[in-house]
């Protein structure tokens, strides 16, 4: 079971997706455009000043006290999360500037699910384009002997030759592990390269900013926990995720899939591993406001259904920002989880497999899963320095795909898993 190891992992929390009593997510309209909770894109165009004025007005007129406000949403999602009385809730529902209201929910690490549509596993082909072993071969025959007819040789022009085709340059920069580097089985399985200059945004429990194997950008890192500005990883989960993606090629520790990539920590889980959907929404807003196309976001988290979180992820993906999302650790179809159920281009959902290419027993599944990656007994970086071996969960499968996306902007496949619980076995994520 996932909790067999004495360290934080992708915990199977019974509270995951549970509504937080009295706490709500209030989403405001975009000018004259009403946004329903079923919409797939917010398309906000309201200026920052006007959006702030709208938020402040909604908070003030409904009588919400500042100490009851949990989050302010600034960006593609405009609104706030707060603890509300029934009277305040009724007042906000009658406010013409309010688009819709959702109840806030608990999120746990690694419980999510859907992606951008399945990619068929690659097939080995012959140079002629047919599948290997499927081309019919002619029966060998002996030629009939004939006497040659003497002829004068006919002068011929030399036959022009086509230049020998060359393989295209790889879409990523390869790397040779330095002496002293460990290449864990999980990283070896999907492949690795040089991620120098690439940026991954890790929405998680923070990161150990002093870890010698991680390149953390403190200026862009940010805590979404109100009253706690630190991005230091008190729980230990985010540091493990970061190592799989980006551990340095520095002659010590381990090699990440996209070694030397820059890590930006967006902290939404506290020291006990607790988080909320409203924090995750704020984190995605932060990504939209600060990331650039080609950047990658890892979300090893999830909850019940939240249209607001789904819409935010969808909008970010439309801007060219790539997402790797954990499928979840409840052994159920991932279609009932956010942001796992988001099924658009640029969002990849990842199930967990073991080193025998079998689906992990507790991994979520479903036709919304895009790829499977190593997620059982992996080796990665640990809070406080050094490495750890043993973590399991889709939380640790998703960062393998995040690393691949950093290196080449797409994910290839190398076979399929066994033991899948839906009708289509998940392709195994691969760099090449």
TrEMBL record:
Keywords: Hydrolase, Protease, Serine protease
Domain Peptidase S8/S53: 195-407
Statement: the UniProt record of this protein carries the keyword Calcium: no
GO molecular function: serine-type endopeptidase activity
Cross-referenced Pfam families: Inhibitor_I9, Peptidase_S8
Active site: 204, 237, 395
GO CC terms of this entry: extracellular space
Keyword Protease assigned: yes
Residue ranges, compositional bias (Low complexity): 117-126
A biological-process GO annotation: proteolysis
SUPFAM superfamilies membership: Protease propeptides/inhibitors, Subtilisin-like
Compositional bias per record (Pro residues), positions renumbered to this chain: 137-168
Domain Inhibitor I9 as annotated: residue spans: 23-109
Positions of region (Disordered): 108-177
Family per record: Belongs to the peptidase S8 family.
Name this protein carries in UniProt: Aqualysin 1
Organism of origin: Pontibacter actiniarum
């Amino acid at each position: 079971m996932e909790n067999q190891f004495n360290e934080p992992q992708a915990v199977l929390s019974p509270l995951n997706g549970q509504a937080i009593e009295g706490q709500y997510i209030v989403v405001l309209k975009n000018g004259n455009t009403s946004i329903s909770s079923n919409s797939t894109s917010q398309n906000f165009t309201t200026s920052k000043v006007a959006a702030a004025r709208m938020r402040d007005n909604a908070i003030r007129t409904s009588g919400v006290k500042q100490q009851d406000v949990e989050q302010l949403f600034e960006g593609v999602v405009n609104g706030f999360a707060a603890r509300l009385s029934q009277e305040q809730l009724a007042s906000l529902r009658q406010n013409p500037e309010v688009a819709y209201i959702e109840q806030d929910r608990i999120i746990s690490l690694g419980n999510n699910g859907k992606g951008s549509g399945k990619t068929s596993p690659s097939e080995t082909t012959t140079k002629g384009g047919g599948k290997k072993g499927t081309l019919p071969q002619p029966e060998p025959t002996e030629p009939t002997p004939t006497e040659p007819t003497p002829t004068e040789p006919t002068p011929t022009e030399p036959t022009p030759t086509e230049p020998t085709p060359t393989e295209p340059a790889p879409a990523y920069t390869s790397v040779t592990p330095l002496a002293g580097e460990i290449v864990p089985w999980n990283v070896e399985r999907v492949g690795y390269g040089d991620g120098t200059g690439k940026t991954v945004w890790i929405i998680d429990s923070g990161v150990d900013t002093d870890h010698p194997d991680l390149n953390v950008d403190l200026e862009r890192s940010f805590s979404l926990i109100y009253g706690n500005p630190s991005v230091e990883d008190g729980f230990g989960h985010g540091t493990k995720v970061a190592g799989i993606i980006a551990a340095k090629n520095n002659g010590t520790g381990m090699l990440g899939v996209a070694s030397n990539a820059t890590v930006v920590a967006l902290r939404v889980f506290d020291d006990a591993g607790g988080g909320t959907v409203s924090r995750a929404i704020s984190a995605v807003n932060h990504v939209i406001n600060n990331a650039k196309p080609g950047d990658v976001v890892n979300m090893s988290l999830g909850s019940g259904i939240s249209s607001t979180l789904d819409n935010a992820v969808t909008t970010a993906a439309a801007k060219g920002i790539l997402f790797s999302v954990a499928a979840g650790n409840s052994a159920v179809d991932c279609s009932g989880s956010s942001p796992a159920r988001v099924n658009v281009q640029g969002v990849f959902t990842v199930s967990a497999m073991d080193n025998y290419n079998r689906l992990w027993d507790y991994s979520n599944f479903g036709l919304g899963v895009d790829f499977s990656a190593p997620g059982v007994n992996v080796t990665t970086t640990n809070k406080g320095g050094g490495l750890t071996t043993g973590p399991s969960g889709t939380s640790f499968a998703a960062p393998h795909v995040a690393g691949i996306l950093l290196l080449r902007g797409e994910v290839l496949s190398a076979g399929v898993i066994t033991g899948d619980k839906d009708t289509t076995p998940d392709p195994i994520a691969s760099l090449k």
